[in-house]
UniProtKB/TrEMBL annotation:
InterPro entries: ABC_Transporter_SBP (IPR050902), ABC_transptr_periplasmic_BD (IPR002491). This is Fe/B12 periplasmic-binding domain-containing protein. The keyword Signal applies. It comes from the Bacteria. Keywords: Signal. It holds the Pfam family Peripla_BP_2. It comes from Marvinbryantia formatexigens DSM 14469.
Length: 393
């Protein structure tokens, strides 16, 4: 059959935040769609060329952190023929470290996942796919988030079916790697329109947040400290970032601006104390609260220098990272950040309604109540009463 190549990492949809690719790439994507049912060669998100037959797959396995989540946004979960133990909440023996945190794809499709055989343990300790368990599920395609070219090539050779690797990117839901992964899934499963719809929605949401806040004068911007970022369960009030996408999109002043930090990392306690008097607002990721509470109870003076703490300007956003990025929650958090910092500009935004809207777009279900009911959500987006929340005496 005639072979055609497209570059999935830059599949084009004209996006204001760098999601767009070239006209040539748009034409290549259209060619792939036109040839649905024919074998083509795609380039997955880590640069591997793989022969696939778009629209032909009926037995799907997803392995690695985030793979099943991303597939759930685009693909039909009824095509799944296996699931990692971490995503089957009915199993007695399985990784449970994320069970108290909202993972919307699990909330949406928990019943479907519970009926499927195991394709591996999954979870942060699983550093490689389990080929034998995957083979026992008899998939005709594997969607993976193990971003290692040699391992993915070896797994594909063992399984004898296409192994397609996705990627998220450091900017999460706003990263072109995320949009590229959605486009790639759309091509593989004949869901191009669905992929385009989701990408366009994310782009429009980001653009609206930015446009609402574009005219705020620098001197009128409160200084925000966002913390508890990074890997769920391993972070606290010192884990933060200077260049954090949700703050950037909402034109929010980061108290760390100018420090030269790269990525998400902890600051020293001395730096936290030094910056405390400049912190107008603190936003904490809910996943870190379980670590911050005992630290505070051990040393109640840890926030004494922090203006936001003393003024009662401490807020809770939902955990955006649990078995990799909760993309829909990351988008919800961006709205919450903007509403928290600029309440007058976002007075019309109700976080329960916005969360339902976003989860409905991503997963076809309104999940706000279930997300907020998870133990580590502490009831949902809120301004924290520190005296009761952190157990002050």
């Amino acid at each position: 059959m005639k072979m055609k190549k497209m570059t999935a990492a830059l599949l084009a949809s004209v996006m204001a935040f760098g999601f767009c690719g070239s006209t040539v790439q748009c034409e290549e994507q259209e060619t792939a769609v036109e040839n649905a049912g024919e074998e083509i060669t795609i380039t997955d998100m880590i640069g591997r060329e793989v022969s696939v037959t778009p629209g032909s797959y009926e037995r799907v396995v997803c392995v690695g952190a985030g793979a099943l989540r991303m597939y759930s946004y685009i693909g039909d979960v009824n095509l799944l023929c296996g699931v990692e133990d971490i995503d089957n909440t009915t199993l007695e023996e399985r990784p449970e470290m994320f069970d108290s945190v909202a993972r919307p794809y699990v909330l949406a499709y928990e019943e479907v996942f519970s009926m499927l055989p195991s394709c591996g343990v999954g979870g942060p300790m699983a550093q490689a796919a389990e080929a034998e368990k995957i083979l026992s599920c008899e998939p005709d395609i594997v969607i993976s988030e193990f971003e290692d070219v040699e391992k993915e090539d070896a797994l594909q050779e063992q399984l004898g079916v296409p192994v397609i690797t996705l990627k998220a990117g450091s900017k999460g839901v706003f990263d072109e790697a995320f949009s590229g992964s959605m486009e790639l899934l759309g091509v593989l499963f004949g869901e191009e329109e669905r992929a385009e719809e989701l990408i366009a929605y994310v782009e429009a949401e980001a653009a609206e947040i930015t446009s609402r806040t574009a005219d705020i004068a620098e001197e009128d911007k409160p200084a925000v400290y966002i913390c508890g970022l990074g890997n769920w369960g391993t972070t606290d009030h010192l884990m933060t970032a200077e260049n954090f996408v949700s703050l950037n999109i909402a034109n929010v002043k980061n108290v760390l601006s100018g420090t030269g930090m790269e990525g998400i990392q902890p600051i020293e306690e001395e730096k936290f104390v030094e910056l405390g008097e400049d912190m107008d607002i603190i936003i904490m990721d809910a996943a870190a609260v379980k670590n911050i509470i005992p630290l505070y109870q051990e040393d109640p003076t840890m926030f004494d220098t922090c203006k936001a703490w003393n003024n009662g300007e401490v807020y809770l956003e939902m955990a955006y990272n649990a078995y990799y990025t909760n993309f829909e929650i990351a988008l919800c958090n961006s709205w919450f950040v903007a509403k928290t910092v600029y309440p007058e500009l976002f007075e019309d935004v109700d976080m329960m309604e916005k969360t339902n809207e976003i989860t409905n777009m991503f997963l076809g279900q309104e999940l706000a109540e279930e997300i907020f009911a998870c133990p580590s959500s502490f009831g949902g987006y809120q301004k924290i009463d520190t005296a009761t929340f952190f157990g002050e005496n």
